[in-house]
Amino acid sequence: MRHLLSTKDLSRDEAVHVLDVTEDMAATQLREVKKLPTLRGKTVVNLFFEDSTRTRISFEAAAKRLSADVISFAAKGSSVSKGESLQDTAQTLEAIGADVIVLRHPASGAPAVLAESGWIAASVLNAGDGTHEHPTQALLDAFTLRRRIHGDGSRGRGLDGVRVLVVGDILHSRVARSNLWLLTTLGAEVTLVGPPTLMPFGIGDWPATVSYDLDAAIAEVRPDAIMMLRVQRERMSDAFFPSAREYSTLWGLSATRFAALPETCVVMHPGPMNRGFEIASVAADSPRSTVLEQVTAGVSTRMAALYLTATGAGA
Amino acid sequence: MTDPQRNAPQHFVLAGATLSDGRTLDIRIDGGIVAELGSRLDPRGATRVDAVGLIALPGLVDLHTHLREPGGEGAETVRTGSQAAAVGGFTAVNAMANTSPVADTASVVEQVLALGDAAGYATVRPIGAVSKGLAGEHLADIGAMARSRARVRVFSDDGMCVSDPLLMRRALEYIKTFDGVLAQHAQDPRLTEGAQLNEGAVSAELGLAGWPAVAEEAIIARDVLLAQHTGARLHVCHISTAGSVEVLRWAKSRGIRVTAEVTPHHLLLTDRLAEGYDARYKVNPPLRTDSDVAAVRAGLADGTIDIVATDHAPHSADSKHCEWSAAANGMVGLESALSVVHETMVETGLLDWAGVERVLSVTPARIGDVRGHGEPIAEGSAPEITLYDPAARHEFGTSDLAGKSRNSPYLGRSLPGRVIATFHHGYATVLDGRLVELESGAVRG
Fold first, then answer.
1. Is B311 a known active-site residue?
2. Residue ranges making up the domain that contains B38
């Protein structure tokens, strides 16, 4: 694939292929020597217009394990006017010799604009754009979930019939959007749960059930996985809900709710977690939590994404 | 007035033109008036223009144009903007007040007036700001602008909503004294903080902050009640939602003095076009849905919406070729307006050419009190005429644009019709489909 901009435009076959390549990458990470020569001589630029230490180091680790040269560029706070900054910065980085630009940007659609602009020939890999998408996060989530459900028999398989609750700030969450598209493409059944003020307007056509009541959703759906989203602190001051306590009471994964989940239900969180707010420690630290597996899967997933875009390998 | 020495009225016979009422005849422009209508008029002493198959309309009048001068000359000037107007068949434009400095004093509106006269491509009527600096706090120099040489009659903070109900009330009362009109940009600021695109299925998927229809409709509902209370004239800019049409219909049924405009782009385009994040489709109010498009077309057809106004908003390439949320709002529209109305209203059978004449010339001239414009073509009428070829359909391209900016949403789209000639003050500003190069006059004052 040339770019990875969203999960919305991935077909089922493409998505399964990326997950299978991720399996290959994950297998190499069990070896004593983790480094592969695959992208030797290629240059990967991490262009981050928004702080995200976790995503950046995950991409950095992935690129290094593939022997690519890595340049990390934090453009946040750059004084150049916004539009010029993206064009000029991207062109500058390409002039330096970038083959893949990993872009994190606060504006929804910035990776699509960069990919379609004609400004650069490099591949563009969306590392999170505004409130639009975060495709590698969804891919690593799907990879983690597929592993938990199908184990060593994961290759070639989707997530057919798997029931997933996605809980929290859907409105502002690129993770929720990318997961919704990818999970449903893979055959999963998604229920979105959160306060009505944090649910996007106009999602009647989305392939998901919407619920405002987490207890009812847990009881009715009997989920195979529950994905808790991080709630940004500024949502509280913007009056999206009356108080942190009320949010936590109604939509947090408390110890009681954790106990009410089916015994096989996996607990997921993209991190970083607000412990005691959207997720109780008893849930976050339980054996059913995949939080650290997700971090590990992140490196393999990004290795797969870098490999597929940098080499233009067919999906 | 244009310097008569420079762009003197000329003599034309427009042979075989079809008027909006369907009559086909020759039109003689002579001595600064339409001198004669008839068949087989003697073209001697005049330039004969073959108008067979062409529709002759009174020069189009735009109530909502951004000419960007002073302050935004990189995107447009009064001269280039009025050239774009001429190419689109317009003979008069009303220049919005959101320039830099803002047109909130007599000196700025007189400057814009003078620049328009000097350019000579169209009558440029300055619109005055409602509030100082468009800040929505204190009234601008409304009386001084009304009494200035520019004789301002339309007042608007366009780009910003007069959201404070008390300021809105006072402005209406003040403007009423000389029968001016307040043109409101209806947008509740709190409901649209950070808004990027119509709030709906597309904004949800693209992760762009939504601009809900209710933010427009709530302001219009409030304003028509204030207009009723004060007895003043209200004009609502760029109606974009089905609900706004309903509110207007109700207001008009109550006899409230309200008029409204719709832009060509809201008659044709929808928010689906934003799916590739191409900021050419970013505009305020945003492109809406198919059902909104159907409602504004129906509202324009039945007279609930009075006119079409372009909201011609030129922007430099830099401010459009970037991330959606960083891009400027607005599209150029003067050069394409008549074709878009043709496609959306005439080809659909919703309006005939008499209707087009009404919504693009007669009524906007009346609302804005633009004298010498919007007169149906008759013996003795003002020599402001547009000749339009309805048969030609072509792919709209940058060569169709005459202004300084290229931010048209129609580039690469097939549109019907073409303006063949425009006559303003009795001389041609466009002939054979091409802009006539006029000498620039000295700016007075």
1. yes
2. 12-55+380-435
